[in-house]
Structure formats: structure tokens, C-alpha cells
Amino acid sequence: MLQLWPDKDIQVHKAKAGRVPLLILQPRHPKKDAPGVLWIHGGGFMDREKLLEFLKEGEEILWEGKAEPIRILDDTNASSFWKKLIISAAVTVLAIALYWYFSVRNGVEVSSFIIGFFAVCGLISPVRFWTDARRVRKQKYIATDRRLIVQSDTMLDVPYSFIHEAVFKRDADGHGTLLCGKDAVKKDPAKWRVASILCNINEIDSKDPCRNFVFYAVEDPEKLLEVLKEKLPVLKQ
Q1: Most Cβ neighbours (<10 Å): which of 13, 38, 43, 80?
Q2: Residue/partner pairs of 54-59 with CB below 8 Å, 24 or more apart
Q3: Nearest residue to 195 via CA among 204, 203, 186
């Protein structure tokens, strides 16, 4: 917490209670028996505590990792980015041109707000390459004795017993990725990054509950593969 402006009558002390940061603001000349305010701000679990809270009783963590350093426009994703950028630009220009034409034709004043709206919509698809890369860097991958877990803003998991297809592949940039589920194993490498963010268990399909679950660009994949030899016998390389 930051003071927005200095106050000569208030003194600030920063402290800690265990790992909980404290900010104490008090008058420089306090009065006897003056009232006080205790403000407890719930910022949520720290990452490690969030993971431990998510584990089941007796569940053991066998491996933890994250995505290795990645470039936003690497060899694998660059062509897909430029393709989306060109398509988005073309659609945006066409939409603005049609709006302008029909506005002038019908004697309606051209709105700069609507033109700006079309322009912003056209940028959304290309900008996702930057936001997706940032989200991947924040993800953590965990293999326990019972399941695989992707930890980000939420916790996504899949028990080993649900995984009937799995493969470990490398893309054009050498990043090793674990793909689980019949949808995931067929994906083009340019879609692996976003798949790791959107991975989910499709519980509606009882024949194949795990369709798409991805550990993208795994750092130190050898240790992960060693752990999965016994836990995930269907894994192929």
C-alpha cells in the first residue's frame, strides 16, 4: 500500500507477521484511548499454498516445472501470427469501408467511435499472441502420483486414469510439449501454446473424459518423462 501524499501528522511503519506484510499508520501524537481501524485485505493464497490446498490427502508431488523461456514470435508461431494479422487487417478495412459507404449514402454522420471500435476489434486476434505468451510464462506444471495439474489463475487437472492417449513432441523451435487427449495429440504445433492455456477435461464425454490437456514448452522434460514412465504408460515419443 502506498501513501498518495505525505501527511505530517501521520507516521508509517512497515512490518511482517510471519509472511504477512503489515502497514501501520498512526498519529505522530496519539491520544489516549483513541479508536483504531484494523483492515484485513484478502489477497488470496500464495502460489505454493494454493497448490498444497488443491492436493488431496496423501497425494505426493513427483515433479514440478514451468515453461522454458519462449519467444512471442518464434519459428513455430510466426506464420500463424502474420496470417491472422493480415486477415484481421483486411476484415477491419472492409468493415470500416462498408460502414463509411452506407453512412454517406444514407446521409448519416460518420462516427469516429464506431470506426475506432472496428479498429480495436481488428487488433484483438494478433494481440493475443503477446497475452498468450505472458500467460504461459506464469503457468506451473505439476505431476503427482495421481494426476497432472496446470496451475495458473485457476487449477486445472486430469487423473492419469482418464488419459488414454498421450504423446511428447517437439516443435520447430525445439520446445518439448506433453499432449494428452485425442484432441491434443492431433493439434498443429502452432496451436500448442494456446491449448496449454485452454486445456480442460471434457467430463460430458464419458468415453474419453480427457480430450485436451497440455504442458507446453516444458523445462527439463527428461525428469518429467522419467516420472511418467510408470504413471502414464500410454505416453509415446
Answers
A1: 80
A2: 54/149, 54/151, 54/155, 54/157, 55/144, 56/146, 59/144, 59/145, 59/146
A3: 186
Cβ atoms of 214 and 226 closer than 8 Å: no
> Which one of 7-21, 106-120, 138-152, 199-213 scores highest in mean pLDDT?
138-152
Domain end point (choices 114, 134, 154): 134
pTM greater than the 0.90 cutoff: no
Average of per-residue pLDDT across 214-233: 91
**In whole angstroms, what is the distance from residue 10 CA to residue 6 CA?**
8
Distance CA 36, CA 38 (A): 7
| Number of structural domains the chain divides into | 2
Instruction: Indicate whether 183 and 212 sit together in one domain.
Output: yes
Average pLDDT over residues 158-169: 92
Give the CA dihedral 194, 197, 202, 203, nearest 10 degrees: 180
